[in-house]
Structures
1.
Amino acid sequence: MASDKELTPTSYMDHHLTNLTSSVGEGSFWTLHVDTLVMSSLIGIISFGFLWWVVRGATSGVPGKRQAFVELAIEFVDNQVKSTFHGDRHAFVAPAALTVFVWVFMMSALDFLPIDIMASVYELLGLHNWRSVPTADVNTTFALALSVWLLMIFFNIKVKGLGGWIHELVCTPFGKNPLLWPVNLLFNLVEYVSKPLSHSLRLYGNIYAGEIIFLLLGMWAATGLAGTLFGTVLGAGWAIFHILIVTLQAFIFMMLTVVYLSMAHESH
Amino acid sequence: MNINLTLLSQAMAFAIFIWFTVKFVWPPLMRAIENRQKTIADGLAAGERGKSELELASHRSADVVRDAKQRAAEIIAQAEKRASEIVEEAKSAAKDEGGRILTGAKAEVEQEVFRARETLRQNVADLALAGAAKILRREVDAKTHADLLASIKAEL
């Protein structure tokens, strides 16, 4: 915790909600959130490294507990994809969905780390501003949503051809009548803009709000014995509830990815 | 909420993780799962086959048992027939033998009767001769009257 300044609720919140930035060029765009990058890459490498490690020794005989766990996760994702996407899902869509699910879940699950204890640990490492949860950074969720959005456009063009896609943009959903073209196009544009926005902001909002709640409970705990007791009990309750939120948000994010990608594969 | 270069870096990380999963995580496990599914399907099919084979074998064994029973019954019937034949043969042989013995015995009895009658006749002749000799009070020479005596004896 910041000990060199006077501790006020504002400084406490600020401290926990400020990224460690690194400037790589002129202007505010050319900065990197080092904490977001490091934490997301680290958790990604650990998660996918674990998956790779398990899968590399996978047996087609009786699986061990570790392999059974991974198979459970993968078959869960595979079943979700199977019910939505009708094509060769093994080539790209299903593994991509797995990536999204595992990565988003693990990144959001960093929210379970006790926020002030982690802050002291980071302080020991000489990192004053360091946010643990990459999905509480809008850059991460936008990066994921925009990547999915680009993949959506890529598959639209790949499956239907450029002409087919443009035809779909101007002729659906209302009809082929040239008078309806502008309406169709406007409708589709709104849809194409709203998809990545809702996709990313839903995840960001949920995780960010969860973090804020933890911070508020932490501040309450600083007000005295009663506050500490209530803060502890409510914090535990919120953490348990947050397990549901994190899982649910990862699942929703994955499902939307699958739905967007399968919509790109199907012509109307 | 400030959008910056982090977005691009995160997108890049995302791309790398997707590539990694598509390339290294998904295929081996899917292969393992599919192999297992195939093994299980094979096992189930083998079980099914075994079951039908068992059924077939039990049918066959029932056939064999039925045949054997039939054969045994035939053999028993034959044996019974043969036994009664043997008994019949033995009966008729015994009857023949009995008949033979009976005839032999009858012949012997007749012979005995004949012999006894001869003896009796001799004795009667002797008695008659003695009687006649007494009547004639003289000694009849048996040797001289042999012819007479013989004729008497024959008449008796």
2.
Amino acid sequence: MSAVGAVRAPGAGHSPAAAREPGPGTNPHPGTGPVYVTGIGVAAPNGLGLEQYWEAVLAGRSGVVPITRFDTSRYPARLAGQIEGFDASAHLPSRLLPQTDVSTRLALAAADWAIADAGVDPSGTTDYDMGVVTSNGCGGFEFTHREFKKLWSVGPQAVSVYESFAWFYAVNTGQISIRNGMRGPSSALVAEQAGGLDALGHARRTVRRGTPLVVTGGVDSAFDPWGWLSHLSSGRISHATDPERAYLPFDAAACGYVPGEGGAILVVEDPVAARARGASRVYGEIAGYASTFDPAPAGFRGERPARPGRPPGLRRAAEQALAQAGLTPKDVDVVFADAAGVRDLDRAEATAIRELFGARRVPVTAPKALTGRLYAGGGPLDVATALLTIRDGVIPASGASADVPADYGIDLVTKGPREARVACALVLARGRWGFNSAVVVREASV
Amino acid sequence: MTRRVVITGIGIRAPGGKGAKEFWSTLTSGRTATRRITFFDPSPYRSQIAAEADFDPVIEGLTASETDRMDRATQFAVVCAKEAVRDSGLELGGLDPYRVGVGLGSAVAAATSLEREYLALSDRGRDWEMDPARLSPHMFDYLVPSVMAAEIAWTVGAEGPVAMISNGCTSGIDSVGHAVQLIREGSADVMVAGASDTPITPIVVACFDAIKATTPRNDAPEQASRPFDGSRNGFVLAEGAAMFVLEEYDSARRRGAHIYAEVTGYATRSNAFHMTGLKPDGREMAEAIRVALDESRVDVTAVDYINAHGSGTKQNDRHETAAFKRSLGQHAYETPVSSIKSMVGHSLGAIGSVEIAASLLAIEHNVVPPTANLHTSDPECDLDYVPVTAREHRVNTVLTVGSGFGGFQSAMVLRSPQEVS
């Protein structure tokens, strides 16, 4: 093995970047410090707005419903976590409506709510001191489907002048930046369901490198007929017809997942900057983040012999995120699972959790059973939920999942919320084809 | 101590030649690779020109299964990743895979496959609702294209952080910048990073037609890409990919690797102005340049060559020229600036990496590639753009920049190994 391959302790080697921006609230020691979450905006199938969503989650109200956006009669799956009652024109200026997909409208609204929740006045903050880092899985897909249709049924001259930027994966980052005058370092990441945690991790990195405030998270939606068929082609979508029983992560009757739309946008800040502006609340701190990748599946280029004793990527991501936070598994009070709802994936995740924590040693929950899987929005919404769990000392249940196979060896929170003091939560996400991401959030150290 | 990051391998597929050698030969000869589109009949479109790459997946060693499932952009990226690793001399099999990561940039990702599948599913645009019987098993991975980064991870055996960066037309700088940050902070020791886009497909051509961003100079495709020229009237769409091996400096030196350059600085800012428009003052790009130079701990006068975004739109070239003056002052007038888009076109998210490759080769050969088709002056573009002919010039420090939809403005500083050792 060459020197390059020497194994380093997880989290070792962090070093401050050379460049920092000026600004009154700039941390004099960036690079390794804590990063606070000071604002949250939620657009979820079971609740528009943070408290509305939280109330629904604690009450066990689901947003999984038969799709009403188009006629689903010819498709084998018809249930989705669908947002109803979102009136974009009530939240956004009319000039933004013709140029945005529903996913971008939801992202802009959630960003507005997060910024208001944080009590930040963007116009009063130095523009380079605010960045935007979002994840996006599908782009503005329904919008682009309409433009494909115009191109091929009418002709090139029918294509919208907005198509060039309403479609691409950076659209939410760009629109949030423009709407709020945020000129700091910004980015967009794609890693299917893991991407949202990657965005939070990169936002944390961006703060540590000297940008005092970053708006981050993810929102996705693709519930037009083409988007819907694309979901189906994953082979993992539930064909169940009972909305209550369609997405049952970790249940013996798990039969696939239900796709959802929406997500969460968070404001993350350098603690020094947050204090300097008199931030009204701190939900908690992003204490650790790591991502890993699984080896090539059998039959693919790069496939290599199994290496006995090597932990799976998901467990490794969790271990690295905890090590970064200076924590051990026994410090974790709850795990928000990826919760694929596909039996072999559920089993693999249960095994990773069991091997890391010991059998049934930590509560595990999957409130995403009430929203469906939101792709880029899933991880940020789980982090938001974890922060509310810390705030209120109550762990939400995992939808209707109840019958967990004994050999999974996990303590899944079922049948209603569980009161518990929660100081630290581990949030896990997996993206199709091998992406694993983990975020550790904990009470803010004041 | 901050870990230093160097580039030790290049893989490239661009119009006008495959591999670094052919690519550099095209650039330094001033030959243009812009032609009338052959991938489909372009006659209904306003702009009928593109820079297409000569790419045969079979000759490139891809299997039938790979060609079937991978979008064209993924194929380009995988081939480039293999070539970059080969060029670096790294024995990836001997590395700890946990310490190897991937950073892939792409603006429109699987656009080619999306359009192909759309035509099949919608009966060539007739149906809004679609027939499930015509569904490809790969459709999900065209909808959510992170599989592109996954394919590279499998190709190189990476099990560390794997990221797909999609920041529009700065993706190719930002993916490499992302990789640099991961190595510096200790999250990885080796990153295979770069970008790929293959957008020469009707929907993308129509997108840019709609906003008149691409040139309608259809009667002279070979002279159509005219950055900084007074008669410029839009960019020429292109395809391409470039991937690099980035590694920590000390280990690269210990193993005796050939070092193309150190990435000494990288920064990105947003203009928060307009999704496609640019203000003439270049303020945010100038700030990105300032921060990237500051991070490099070099004075502006150290910059020997500016590899410009130079797309050939009226507003870009003016915006960028203002940004160079604003950030470099008088030195902007004394530094050669050129746009290789004049020859290889604008491959959207990929071009930032293609331009990093050109910058590395400029350092390697002490030659500045020219801006082809630059004949007519523009009072607002009054720097030394190296018109038409390549120039021998000592190149130790390169500034390369990009500007993209969404308002992204990125800058990267690359320095020769002599300068940094």
